[in-house]
């Protein structure tokens, strides 16, 4: 049996049909990613791989408002140009993406609400994404003052094309579920009350399907992502470099004050 007891902000429920339901559980902070949850999201897929009871994983956010509303600002402020901390978060960010790519079992994201930052990485790196048509997502990195590095460079151009990827990653405009489905960023958008039931229905179909065939199909398709690995690695390193610039201080302050940022680099 796989022991999920070490996880503090992820909840787990097995079904008899082989579905492992995972819930990001920080509803008091809209399931935002703190240091602990960031580490958990980087490690959990290794345990799912070793779980003999799990054929398919479904991940969602606790409550109805958010899948995961970005990174805790306290966590970002805690980096404070600390090379050791930034190196650690870079390693974990890479593990979130690569451990999801390398997991042979299908992953479904039930995007019940707002998705930003590291939580968005999990939502988008899932093999099938089912989104609340009224929910909104944004990569959010450039609004904070850092490059888009968590996951976007490896998969957004494949999902929605380079033109749309560049537009949304450079502007940080929000995208609702309907538009995300229209441009191909998510698998499907459904009414809010149907998100989790639809995810379960798809998971049931996969859990009852030919497991070797499904896993080899995922592995085959993910070769496209492996080809983009160097691009992702570069984007992640570039993002981390940005944490040493003054723009991040202004980005955090602007988010706290709910205003448009006035980045120092834009004034030079």
Describe the overall structure.
This protein is globular. The strands form 2 sheets. Strands 1-2-3-5-7-10 form a 6-stranded mixed beta sheet, with helices on both faces. α3 packs parallel to α4 and α6 (152-160) packs across α7. The chain has helices at residues 35-50, 73-79, 83-102, 117-125, 141-144, 152-160, 162-171, 177-182, 195-207, 211-221, 223-227, 229-242, 247-257, and strands at residues 10-14, 19-24, 56-61, 66-69, 107-111, 114-116, 128-132, 136-138, 175-176, 188-190. The protein is built from 13 helices and 10 strands. The protein has a single domain, classed as Alpha-Beta Complex (2-enoyl-CoA Hydratase, Chain A, domain 1).
Number of H/I helices: 13
Spans where pLDDT lies below 50 across 5 or more residues: none
Q: How many E strands?
A: 10
The proportion of residues in beta strands is 15-25%
| Class by SSE composition | alpha/beta
Describe the global form. Answer: globular
* Rg for CA atoms: 18 Å
- Per CATH, which architecture? Alpha-Beta Complex
Mean pLDDT: 96
CATH superfamily: 2-enoyl-CoA Hydratase, Chain A, domain 1
- Sketch the major β-sheet: 6 strands, mixed
Strand and helix layout:
Layout: E1 10-14, E2 19-24, H1 35-50, E3 56-61, E4 66-69, H2 73-79, H3 83-102, E5 107-111, E6 114-116, H4 117-125, E7 128-132, E8 136-138, H5 141-144, H6 152-160, H7 162-171, E9 175-176, H8 177-182, E10 188-190, H9 195-207, H10 211-221, H11 223-227, H12 229-242, H13 247-257
Parallel strand pairs: 2-3, 3-5, 4-6, 5-7, 6-8, 7-10
Antiparallel strand pairs: 1-2, 8-9
Helix pairs in contact: 1-3, 3-4, 3-12, 6-7
């Amino acid at each position: 049996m796989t022991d999920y007891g070490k996880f503090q902000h992820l909840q787990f429920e097995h079904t008899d049909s082989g579905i492992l339901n995972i819930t990001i559980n920080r509803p008091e902070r809209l399931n935002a990613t703190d240091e602990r949850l960031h580490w958990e999201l980087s490690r959990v897929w290794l345990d799912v791989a070793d779980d003999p009871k799990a054929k398919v994983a479904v991940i969602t956010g606790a409550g109805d408002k958010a899948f995961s509303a970005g990174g805790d600002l306290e966590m970002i402020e805690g980096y404070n140009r600390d090379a050791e901390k930034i190196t650690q978060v870079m390693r974990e960010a890479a593990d979130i993406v690569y451990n999801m790519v390398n997991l042979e079992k299908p992953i479904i994201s039930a995007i019940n609400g707002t998705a930003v930052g590291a939580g968005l990485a999990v939502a988008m790196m899932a093999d099938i994404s089912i989104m609340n048509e009224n929910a909104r997502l944004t990569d959010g990195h450039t609004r904070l003052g850092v490059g888009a590095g968590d996951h976007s460079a490896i998969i957004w151009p494949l999902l929605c094309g380079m033109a749309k990827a560049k537009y949304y990653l450079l502007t940080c405009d929000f995208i609702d579920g309907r538009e995300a489905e229209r441009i191909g960023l998510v698998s499907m958008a459904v009414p809010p009350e149907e998100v989790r039931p639809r995810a379960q229905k798809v998971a049931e179909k996969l859990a009852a399907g030919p497991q070797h065939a499904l896993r080899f199909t995922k592995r085959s398709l993910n070769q496209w992502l492996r080809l983009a690995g160097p691009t992702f690695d570069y984007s992640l390193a570039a993002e981390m470099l940005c944490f040493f610039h003054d723009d991040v201080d202004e980005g955090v302050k602007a988010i706290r004050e709910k205003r448009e940022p006035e980045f120092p680099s834009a004034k030079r």
